[in-house]
Specification:
About 35% of the residues lie in helices and about 10% in strands. The chain has six helices and four strands, in the order H-E-E-H-E-H-H-H-E-H. Strands 1-2 form a two-stranded antiparallel sheet. A two-stranded parallel ribbon has the order 3-4. A hairpin with a 5-residue loop joins strand 1 and strand 2.
Length: about 150
């Protein structure tokens, strides 16, 4: 055997291993079961405690569980704990978002301290806005629009 034969044998073994590995890979993307309309059973906080796919009579999924199913969180209705589950939001920023409601467009999040273009871009896929004309009036009656020191 010559000096190059060990290197050639190692290379051949590497190609053989790569070929066997490629044959062992599954063809196509694995399919995951989908849940087109998950339903939740609410717990004491209103968040979904248990989620099923067959729950025709159950209410819709609420709280942080929505994120697990790829469902958007309504920025105008989500509570502070649900907003904290979003990437890049902690307790302070989530509380600031709740205090700055209502939002009519996602771009309005920029008026909240600590929410810049990067944070907005990171949050946008997880958020939805359900704007109803009576939101502001109802919140004003409940005192929810007052600054924290005036509540």
């Amino acid at each position: 055997m010559g000096p190059g034969s060990a290197a050639e044998g190692g290379r051949a073994a590497l190609w053989l291993a790569a070929g066997l590995f490629a044959l062992a890979l599954p063809r196509g993307l694995p399919t995951t079961p989908t849940c087109p309309s998950p339903r939740g059973q609410p717990g004491p906080t209103g968040h979904s405690r248990r989620v099923t796919c067959e729950g025709v009579g159950n209410p819709r999924v609420e709280g942080p569980a929505r994120l697990l199913f790829g469902l958007a969180v309504d920025l105008n209705r989500a509570d502070r704990l649900t907003l904290e589950a979003l990437p890049g939001l902690g307790p302070r920023r989530a509380a600031a978002l709740v205090a700055a409601r209502p939002f009519r467009r996602l771009e309005e999040l920029r008026r909240v301290p600590g929410v810049g273009p990067q944070t907005l871009a990171r949050l946008a896929p997880f958020l939805s806005l359900d704007v109803r004309p009576d939101d502001t009036a109802a919140r004003a009656r409940s005192g929810d629009l007052l600054p924290p020191n005036r509540r």
